[in-house]
Write a structure and sequence with these properties.
The protein is 31% helix and 18% strand. It is α/β, with parallel strands linked by helices.
Length: 206
């Protein structure tokens, strides 16, 4: 009976439109497949599955990449990461950048939930933007943060990388391996070559 229950769980329910078994349907299916069993309660099925280490669990969210070369790129990254972790004179560093906007209007009013107050703003009006560059030491999980005026750009990125190199040189490192999803690091005045800022929408800054 245990084998039958485990086989049914792996197969999934026969009903169209259902992704998982209910205990009642599983009990009926088990009883129909075990000759010596005329019926079994759903609670008995629950206890049976629990003894096998099977319980009702929330599905784990799992991100997948649409990149057809994802496996190759991940293997390359993993080799670099292993090499950087093993090198005493080097460090593996994870980097990212974002930007925030402080809108010029702060307006509060009593209003219903379905009719919030609104303040119109013209796109041509200047707003206060600030960039955040962040680096995380893979070994110690210690962050290295720097704020800059405006959105992330080439000048700010170069300045951040120079500060980051100075930080690591002071700690006796000869090189660092940077893991950066997409970086805005084109020198000023030069055409872009595939590097784009990762953040396309502003975030509200308190």
């Amino acid at each position: 009976m245990v084998d039958v229950a485990q086989t049914l769980i792996r197969q999934g329910p026969p009903e169209e439109g259902r992704a998982t078994w209910t205990l009642h349907r599983l009990a009926e299916a088990i009883a129909a497949r075990v000759e010596s069993l005329s019926a079994i309660s759903h609670e008995s099925v629950r206890r049976l599955l629990r003894r096998c280490g099977v319980e009702w669990r929330r599905a784990k969210e799992w991100l997948t990449s649409p990149d057809p070369r994802y496996a190759v790129r991940k293997a390359q990254r993993d080799r670099l990461l292993a090499w950087a972790r093993a090198a005493p004179e080097g460090a593996a560093v994870w980097l990212d950048q974002s930007w925030f906007v402080r809108w010029p209007y702060r307006f509060w009013a009593w209003a219903a939930a379905d009719d919030p107050p609104r303040v119109a703003q013209r796109w041509s009006e200047p707003v206060d933007r600030v960039a955040l560059y962040a680096a995380l030491d893979d070994a110690t999980q210690q962050p290295f943060l720097r704020w800059a005026e405006g959105q992330p750009n080439s000048e700010g990125t170069v300045s951040f990388l120079e500060q980051l190199m100075t930080y690591w040189q002071a700690r006796g490192k000869r090189f660092i391996v940077l893991f950066w999803d997409k970086a805005a690091c084109t020198p000023p005045g030069e055409p872009k070559t595939g590097f784009e800022p990762t953040t396309s929408a502003p975030k509200q800054r308190a």
